[in-house]
Amino acid sequence: MVSWIKASIAQHGFWRHWIARLSLHTYQPVTHVRLGITANTSKDALWKPVAETLLLLRSLEQDTVLHPDIHDGLVQRKILVDLPARVKDETAFLESSDVVLSLGGDGTLLGTARMVGERNIPILGVNYGRLGFLANVEAADLPDAIGKLNAGQYDIENRLVLDMHIHSGQDVITHRALNDCSLQRSGDPGLLSLDVFVDGCLLNTYWGDGIILSTPTGSTAYSLALGGPIMAPGCGGILITPVAPHTLTVRPMVLPEHVRIEVRISADNPDCSITADGQANLYGHQNIRVCVSKAGTGIQLLQLHGSDYFTTLRSKLMWGARKLKGA
Predict the structure, then answer these.
(1) Full domain range(s) for residue 16
(2) Angle 157-159-161 (CA atoms, 0-180°, nearest 5)?
(3) Does 149 share its domain with 128?
(4) Which residues make beta-bridge pairs with 288?
(5) What are the CA-CA distances from residue 145 to residues 27, 110, 135, 138, 150 (Å)?
(6) In a shared domain, residues 180 and 155
(7) Number of domains the chain contains
């Protein structure tokens, strides 16, 4: 890694490539934002893209602040020199960022959304993962994205977020979810019995492997794989999608975004895994209430001009793609 960085600095290979990309476009700066840089530091493969991104931003004289974990990881690995000053902690990092640049895939962006929480800080996802539905800026397009960002050529989409409160005895655990909340059996082959109430009225008792409660943003994630519908981000609503229901007439259902959903799980059920955007809590053989509703604040995703939700939808899901030659 160190030798790669030294070679890159000496030869300026990818610098020339990226600066050439920038020369193809002329941007009139409106404001120079301060970018907070974060990534999934548990993946070794991401340190090279992090280094490349920082070198690019340095060449553009872009004001940046590094998440403490990123700063410490670069120092420990002896990658790059003259890093921005280390901020004290995550709170200081967020307070210093105008926009958070999330380097990774959709999972990394969901983690960034959890970190941002209720703060009104826009997130721009750069895809170094597989699908990149939420992180919809491809790494090769990052120079153009930075130009548009500083030129003010973007919109900010406020995405609906779910608040989930798990009541177990006297304990209450709270999570936020940009994508979805799920309640599913864990390990035990028996069926879950979930009583679901909407604003105090019984909707249904779901027998099966569980249910997924999704936002419009999350409708293209786990729920879609279960046969749920796609909801455009601006339409509002909370989607209930059953997981392997025992009754064939049970289908996904879209509810208004302002309702309060309560799921009751009795103690005679199998162990149940309750997650918010993949963050799991395991419960077994106890009475549990899970209350889900629209959060008071959403998550701001930055949408660059020239890209839009439907283009992303079509390209990532390969709608209308021709059959590969020879397939």
Answers:
(1) 2-159+298-316
(2) 160
(3) yes
(4) 168, 265
(5) 11, 20, 12, 9, 9
(6) no
(7) 2
**pLDDT for 260-310, tens place per residue?**
999 999 989 998 999 999 887 878 778 999 999 999 999 999 999 998 889
Residue 179 placed within a domain: yes
In this predicted structure, what is the pLDDT of residue 23? 38
How far apart (Å, rounded) are the C-alpha atoms in residues 29 and 150? Answer: 5
Residue 215 DSSP one-character state: -
Closest CA to 305 of 158, 138, 152: 152
Same domain, 151 and 114: yes
Q: What CATH number has the domain bearing residue 83?
A: 3.40.50.10330
Does residue 148 contact residue 289 with C-beta atoms inside 8 Å?
no
Active site residues: 106
Residue in the block written with tokens 């979930």? 194
State pLDDT tens for residues 161-200.
Answer: 999 999 998 899 999 999 999 999 987 788 999 999 999 9
pTM of the model: 0.86
Query: Would you say residue 201 lies in a domain?
Result: yes
- Return all residues near 272 (Cβ < 8 A) that are at least 6 apart: 183, 184, 185, 186, 192, 210, 265, 282, 283, 284, 288
DSSP class of 85? P
* Residue 322 belongs to a domain: no
- Render 115-145 in DSSP notation, one character per residue: HHTTS---EEEEE-SSS-SSS-EEGGGHHHH
Can you give the pLDDT at residue 323?
A: 57
Task: Clarify whether residues 218 and 122 are in a common domain.
Answer: no
CB 40 within 8 Å of CB 46: yes
Are 47 and 73 contacting, i.e. CB atoms less than 8 angstroms apart? yes
Residue pair 233/299 in contact (Cβ under 8 Å)? The answer is: no
Q: If you compute the radius of gyration of the chain from its CA atoms, what whole number of angstroms results? A: 22
Closest CA to 108 of 97, 88, 124, 93: 124
- Between 317 and 119, where is the model more confident? 119
**Is residue 323 included in any domain, yes or no?**
no
Q: What is the CATH number of the domain that holds 190?
A: 2.60.200.30
